[in-house]
Amino acid sequence: MKFCSECGGGIALRVPKGDDRDRFVCNDCDYVHYINPRVIVGCLPVYEDKVLLCKRAIEPRHGLWTLPAGFMENGETTEEGAARETWEEARARVSHQRLYRVFDVPYISQVYMFYLCSLDDGLFGVGPESLETALYTESEVPWDQIAFPVVEETLRAYFDDRRRDEFPMAVKAIRSRRPPA
Amino acid sequence: MKFCSECGGGIALRVPKGDDRDRFVCNDCDYVHYINPRVIVGCLPVYEDKVLLCKRAIEPRHGLWTLPAGFMENGETTEEGAARETWEEARARVSHQRLYRVFDVPYISQVYMFYLCSLDDGLFGVGPESLETALYTESEVPWDQIAFPVVEETLRAYFDDRRRDEFPMAVKAIRSRRPPA
């Protein structure tokens, strides 16, 4: 951030009066530009004994598999955002959404919220951000080609929980980047 | 938003290529300035049969009672943020945090996350954003002076749950502003 979005003035990193940490503050109009964590919302759509995955058509992790998810938009709920992303990436409608996993990823200032849900009628397609989409049983999941640690952890938790037929919500923190393979 | 924070150029509200909704885009450098929902994190600290509330020293709702909560900061987890706010506003240390209520408030693009927790040693004080702080039993809570609907709903849910001795997590959407009294 180099210029004030309100007046076009120059920006300095300093502690505003009454605050206790550095913020981007305008040298001319004193406007404080807060930068906040971002929320990623997604779904784990289930149909019979299978889960719906998307092969990424975009960076990062182009060509690897993920759950439908993306940045929450203004004016929607987390549940609506998760359903919207599932439509956008996999042309799938979902129901019976319940919050299943929250991941705090503080080193990139992100919060992930995954909803466990049913894939309506088993129908899905391929949205513009996906190369392909597919329903996989546990043994069919391409475990060595999963795009993100939060996705792998959510999938493994789901298949474990299904054996117990209990699906408790959990909050987890991811403290460091995945080590290189 | 009037000026590009990257190059100082003018901003237009338009749909970027490959997107499906209006964004603030720079006319000069094409930088897309996303505006995302914000996360508010807080605690419901419990000590014996009492809950810890804070009387607000700041607007909005100056002089009304609330749970310790505030905007999540970059570089922290939701749990850490909730504990930090509880220290800042009520000089209280907490433990045994568990996610208890998520509120989507889409008309102001906010997500609230309240953690149920224990107030360590029953100790607390008054932070700079509070006029006073206090432990209240259910009948002592100043129910007609609660600052925000999400706070009242969280408190009522807690006292109901305590009668059952079960504290399930729930996600709720607040769809409209509280009607005027």
TrEMBL record, chains A, B:
Record domain Nudix hydrolase: where: 36-159
Coiled-coil segments on the chain, per record: none
Molecular function GO labels: catalytic activity
Gene3D superfamilies xrefs: 2.20.70.10, Nucleoside Triphosphate Pyrophosphohydrolase (3.90.79.10)
PROSITE patterns registered for this protein in UniProt: NUDIX
UniProt xrefs under PANTHER family: NUDIX HYDROLASE 23, NUDIX HYDROLASE 23, CHLOROPLASTIC
The protein's name in its UniProt record: ADP-ribose pyrophosphatase
Species for this entry: Congregibacter litoralis KT71
